[in-house]
Design a protein that fits this description.
The chain is an alpha/beta fold. It contains twelve helices and 24 strands. The chain has helices at 57-67, 83-86, 89-96, 105-115, 184-199, 203-216, 235-246, 264-278, 293-300, 319-330, 350-360, 378-398; strands at residues 6-9, 12-14, 17-19, 24-25, 28-29, 34-36, 39-41, 47-49, 75-77, 100-103, 122-124, 130-132, 137-142, 152-156, 161-163, 222-224, 251-258, 282-287, 303-309, 312-313, 316-317, 337-344, 364-365, 370-373. Bound molecules: MU-OXO-diiron.
Length: 400
């Protein structure tokens, strides 16, 4: 553990930055902050793989300076143009005047559109292209739409080091740099959260990429993503988790996600949850007053059932529920089943709208939905428990 540049492999250093205070990443709550990882290779060509967010440029330069005079960098590889990894590129180009900058075809276009440069020495590389740094060779692998069109992996062949850009990452600020130095449960939770919130929409591409990597026979010894820790001890753990997440593998688990005005929908939610439990199916009841949208979708990553509840407000649903649906819909979870419920005073449109939202999310509905006027009676709550039974039975049937 050290705040300094860290030698990841002989002659290869982590020179990134730690963003302890980051709490929101375009709508995704990052309660542990994040890191922006950049890697410096000391070889005949001194090469920097990726940079950091503009706000952290000095921190990266300070770490590079612990290893070598930054002016000695002659090559920069940009695996991804998003500003958390390229934000300091302009400053770096001005500071070190690299002889060459390597990027995928889509990344070259994206860099132009970000930096509007005239004379940067950008060279385009495609899947299978190799670059010799001296003692080392790099193979490039385009990973289009994981998660931007420009995304790319760089594989340092002799070191077995896969620099994987956003893939296999986690928003996890820590003083430790490696998977074997942090608590595994928290790491896997943060990796799952990253997958659910960033990569889930591209799951078919993730599955295809894993297959491509397998076929290429890359001898991966270590995976170094651009966020979070480096998979040094057990890269197979994250590869295996990605295979499961990409396949949308779920377990016998139901989420009951709700918002409530005067506790009626809340009582209904608790009874639906109780009904699920009565069938020995795992349940998570999530009140949107306390649960962030990005934690809901993280729980959804391995849940087969999704039950949504909202009372009616102004002929619609409560805004926190609308927000959560808007967010979750874009993440394109598949192979889920569910239902809707809610209380109402007069109009009662929310359940119909929740049904429509479930249909749009391609969640297979196992009920027409359940509405209760004003305050639920004991009989109403029994009907909610029965709804829980129905969803749980469908979850169990779906797993056979
Ligand atoms: Fe971490 Fe797509 O940037």
């Amino acid at each position: 553990m050290s705040g300094n540049a860290i030698e990841v492999k002989p002659g290869i250093y982590w020179v990134g930055a730690i963003d302890w205070g980051l709490r929101d990443f375009h709508g995704y709550s990052t309660e542990l902050g994040s890191t922006y990882n950049a890697f410096l290779v000391i070889d005949e060509h001194v090469t920097l793989f990726d940079t950091v967010k503009a706000t952290h440029t000095e921190e990266m330069l300070w770490r590079i300076g612990q290893v070598i005079d930054p002016q000695r960098i002659d090559t920069i590889v940009v695996n991804h143009a998003e500003m958390d990894h390229s934000g300091s590129l302009g400053r770096m180009v001005e500071a070190v005047h690299p002889e060459r900058i390597f990027a995928s075809p889509a990344c070259e276009k994206a860099l132009k559109a970000h930096f509007h440069y005239r004379d940067w020495p950008v060279r385009v590389v495609k899947t299978g292209d190799r670059l010799n740094l001296g003692k080392r060779n790099v193979t490039f692998l385009e990973t289009r739409m994981l998660h931007w069109p420009d995304s790319m992996f760089s594989f340092l062949e002799e070191d077995g080091l896969l620099i994987s850009s956003d893939a296999f990452g986690a928003h996890y600020a820590s003083s430790e740099r490696f998977d074997d130095e942090v608590e595994t449960g928290e790491l896997m939770h943060q990796a799952a959260k990253y997958y659910a919130n960033i990569l889930n929409p591209y799951s078919p591409l993730v599955a295809a990429l894993l297959e491509q990597v397998r076929k290429l026979g890359l001898k991966i010894d270590m995976i170094a993503p651009d966020h979070g820790v480096i998979w040094r001890k057990d890269p197979g753990r994250i590869l295996s988790a990605y295979a499961d997440w990409a396949a949308q593998k779920t377990r016998e688990k139901v989420l009951v996600v709700f918002d409530s005005m005067w506790h009626s929908t809340e009582k209904m939610a608790e009874s639906v949850g109780q009904g699920v439990l009565e069938k020995d199916v795992s349940v998570q009841v999530m009140d949107l007053h306390g649960w962030h949208r990005s934690d809901v979708v993280t729980e959804l990553l391995d849940a087969r059932g999704l039950v949504l509840g909202s009372p009616t407000l102004n002929n619609g649903m409560l805004p926190r529920m609308a927000d959560m649906i808007c967010y979750a819909r874009g993440l394109r979870f598949t192979n889920r089943l569910g239902a809707a419920f809610g209380s109402y005073g007069w109009g009662g449109e929310a359940v119909k709208l929740l049904n429509e939202a479930l249909d749009e999310m391609k969640v297979r509905r196992v009920s027409e939905g359940l509405r209760v006027q004003y305050v639920p009676t004991g009989e109403d709550l029994d009907r909610c428990r029965e709804l829980g039974h129905t969803v749980a039975a469908a979850v169990l049937a779906d797993s056979r």
